[in-house]
């Protein structure tokens, strides 16, 4: 989350503190544990963890934060943060990777180092051949056999090199693939483990986005980062440079021309200094300002609108074409302008200046000096020239790799920090209570429940009080936006109330492990998911263990009165459905094989999904948010009859509690109790008849609806 302006000065104090002391004082705006949810921000904390360092690296002057994926500047401040990350997470991460394939990984590293010596050997061997030839020709002893012998030796060396290269490449593929699987697995695990309150935190979203970038770098997806395994390439490049420098030393040292040596090293490293000092901003090309980032985001949204068929009807009906085009164009211009500015910066005078000719000439000076020595030979001169070129090339690569690795370190910190994120709804281990199924359905006791959505000024729920006894049915009714669905999500433990107390079966709901709690209830959401997959999977996700059981799927479909829908589909439960997002129009490609459904038909499948587990004995709460809003009156009555049947034992005794939210007040009559919600609070509570007699808001709504 962006720091509030009142907090900005403290953020800058923090950075200054780090410069002075090696520690940074930070706003603690990221509660990682559930009990620390909306806490007042602490003024400062030291940077200790990878997360702290990641957060600190995103600070911009003025209290803003870098957009996810933006490159960090190479500064003393960031170098210190990078060192903290290396200490707190890089070692652990790499030792985890090493443990996947210890022998192969060590082999990969060793082979990389050995292969980095090859260019020096190659140069040396070629120099030998040239010298040999030179001496043969000068002495007049030239024979083709001798030449063939030399060429054959070189050929054998090259065959050995390529065999080793082939083996190294296949070994590296195995190591990289295992590492990629591990990283992608952890990344998926992060996503499925975290709950809605955690995922809706903007800081967590940014963190996960950078963590994804890190994971993708293993697949070599081109966003300017090397794979973290390319860290190893730094060692290879250093070895390569070292081996060439040794060769140059051996060529120049014997000649006692230290001037030659110095000139050589100077001419080889000059390009690096030019790049480093001459173009200080060359590595900050993706440093978007928040305005540019917003434009990039808007540009993508408009592109999606234009390309997604699901929006086509409304785009046409409301004539959105021009608006989409204009908005896209203005956003695109901002993005292109920013790229242009960057390109201009990159092509500044210093970086444009072509030094290669100058350097080429410069390297001729030591060559001429070398020529004056007694040890000069054609081979040694060739070797000198190729070694100098190799040093320049490898040094450039080293610089580029180091910069990428530097960025990679910050993305790695996001990956490591993501692993330590604790889902906010998860209670501490010592507080966890195992859910005990109630024989006659769940009891609910809500006392002064309040909830405000992050970023909202008005609470969505205020002082909500009600009780539900075992086996009772409760109807929640009210005007749009009165807080019904919000209350449902809190009862389902999808969200956490801010204030008040909520007990299920006499135990504080916060003490249940959400995974355990969810085993004991079933629900239909108002905005239920429509998956672009088969009917079987659309229904089966209600109880994954029974997804392969045709009987279970068909029973649930039958209970939801959806048999006729499914029977009319070309492949029955194997028919692939088109959800809104992938909705296509006739002849629009491969998705035309998918089958569309009407709103009511989809709703029946969502009810079938809930019925997959409703019959299970451990389920003692059924919650339906507008389950029949798209159904005709006949189907609606049948569904409510089924719900009633499911919530009773074969002897007719109530064994499951049931809550349903409805705008159709004729169905509210079926409930034992009715809750009337207005402006986020319960304005009336009682039986249907009691509320009618009271002649208040419920009675007025009822009369209006029937
Ligand atoms: N994700 C959200 N972020 C911010 N505010 C929200 C969010 N979802 C809902 N609200 C607000 O919370 C209030 C209650 O919304 P809720 O969805 O609970 O109402 P509802 O009674 O279920 O409405 P409806 O009958 O239209 O389904 C509304 O004022 C709504 O604008």
From TrEMBL:
The keyword Hydrolase applies. The keyword Isomerase does not apply. The chain crosses the membrane at residues 231-251, 258-278. InterPro entries: AAA+_ATPase, ABC_transporter-like_ATP-bd, ABC_transporter-like_CS, P-loop_NTPase, Type_1_exporter. GO terms for molecular function: ATP binding; ATP hydrolysis activity; ATPase-coupled lipid transmembrane transporter activity. It comes from the Eukaryota. Keywords: ATP-binding, Hydrolase, Membrane, Nucleotide-binding, Transmembrane, Transmembrane helix. It comes from Mycena alexandri. This is P-loop containing nucleoside triphosphate hydrolase protein. Residues 444-704 form the ABC transporter domain.
């Amino acid at each position: 989350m962006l720091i509030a302006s009142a907090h900005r000065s403290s953020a800058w104090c923090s950075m200054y503190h780090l410069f002075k002391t090696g520690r940074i004082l930070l706003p603690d705006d990221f509660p990682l544990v559930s009990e620390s949810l909306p806490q007042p921000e602490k003024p400062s904390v030291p940077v200790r963890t990878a997360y702290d360092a990641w957060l600190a690296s995103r600070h911009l002057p003025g209290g803003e934060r870098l957009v996810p994926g933006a490159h960090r500047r190479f500064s003393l401040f960031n170098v210190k943060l990078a060192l903290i990350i290396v200490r707190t997470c890089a070692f652990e991460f790499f030792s985890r990777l090493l443990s996947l394939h210890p022998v192969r990984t060590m082999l990969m590293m060793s082979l990389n180092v050995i292969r980095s010596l090859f260019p020096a050997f190659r140069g040396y061997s070629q120099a030998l051949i040239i010298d040999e030839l030179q001496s043969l020709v000068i002495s007049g002893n030239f024979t083709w056999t001798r030449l063939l012998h030399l060429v054959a030796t070189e050929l054998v060396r090259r065959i050995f090199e390529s065999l080793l290269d082939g083996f190294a490449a296949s070994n590296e593929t195995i190591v990289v693939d295992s590492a990629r699987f591990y990283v992608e697995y952890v990344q998926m695990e992060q996503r499925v483990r975290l709950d809605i309150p955690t995922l809706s935190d903007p800081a967590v979203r940014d963190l996960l986005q950078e963590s994804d970038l890190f994971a993708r770098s293993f697949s070599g997806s081109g966003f300017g980062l090397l794979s973290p395994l390319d860290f190893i390439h730094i060692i290879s490049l250093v070895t390569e440079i070292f081996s060439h420098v040794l060769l140059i030393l051996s060529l120049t040292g014997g000649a006692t021309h230290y001037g030659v040596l110095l000139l050589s090293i100077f001419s080889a490293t000059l390009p690096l200094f030019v790049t480093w000092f001459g173009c200080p901003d060359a590595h900050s090309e993706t440093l978007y300002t928040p305005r540019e980032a917003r434009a990039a985001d808007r540009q993508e949204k408009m592109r999606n609108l234009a390309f997604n068929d699901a929006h086509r009807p409304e785009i046409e009906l409301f004539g959105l074409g021009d608006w989409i085009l204009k908005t896209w164009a203005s956003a695109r211009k901002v993005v292109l302008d920013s790229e242009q500015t960057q390109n201009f910066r990159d092509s500044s005078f210093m970086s444009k200046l072509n030094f290669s000719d100058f350097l080429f000439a410069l390297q001729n000076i030591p060559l001429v000096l070398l020529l004056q020595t007694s040890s000069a030979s054609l081979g040694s001169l060739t070797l000198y020239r190729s070694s100098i070129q190799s040093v320049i090339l490898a040094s450039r690569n080293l610089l580029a790799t180091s910069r990428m690795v530097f960025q990679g370190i910050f993305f790695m910190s996001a990956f490591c920090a993501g692993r330590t994120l604790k889902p906010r709804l998860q209670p501490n281990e010592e507080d966890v209570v195992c859910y005990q199924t109630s024989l006659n359905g769940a009891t609910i006791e809500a006392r002064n429940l309040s909830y405000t959505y992050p970023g909202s000024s008005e609470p969505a729920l205020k002082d909500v009080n009600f009780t539900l006894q075992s086996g009772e049915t409760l109807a929640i009714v009210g005007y749009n936006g009165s807080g019904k669905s919000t209350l449902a999500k809190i009862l389902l433990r999808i969200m956490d109330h801010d204030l008040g107390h909520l007990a299920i079966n006499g135990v504080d709901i916060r003490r249940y492990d959400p995974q355990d709690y969810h085993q004991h209830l079933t629900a239909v959401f108002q905005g239920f998911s429509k998956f672009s997959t088969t009917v079987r999977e659309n229904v089966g996700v209600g109880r994954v263990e029974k997804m392969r059981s045709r009987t279970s799927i068909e029973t649930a479909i039958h209970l939801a009165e959806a048999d006729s829908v499914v029977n009319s589909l070309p492949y029955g439960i194997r028919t692939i459905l088109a959800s809104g997002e992938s909705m296509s129009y006739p002849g629009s490609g491969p998705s035309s094989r998918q089958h569309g459904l009407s709103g009511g038909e989809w709703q029946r499948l969502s009810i079938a999904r809930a019925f997959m587990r409703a019959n299970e004995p451990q389920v003692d709460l059924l919650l339906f948010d507008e389950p029949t809003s798209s159904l005709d009156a006949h189907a609606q009555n049948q569904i409510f009859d089924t719900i009633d049947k499911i919530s009773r034992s074969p002897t007719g005794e109530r064994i499951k509690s049931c809550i349903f939210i409805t705008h159709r007040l004729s169905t509210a009559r079926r409930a034992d109790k009715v809750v009337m919600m207005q402006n986020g609070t319960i304005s009336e509570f009682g039986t249907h008849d009691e509320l009618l007699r009271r002649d208040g808001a419920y009675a007025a709504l009822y009369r209006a609806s029937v």
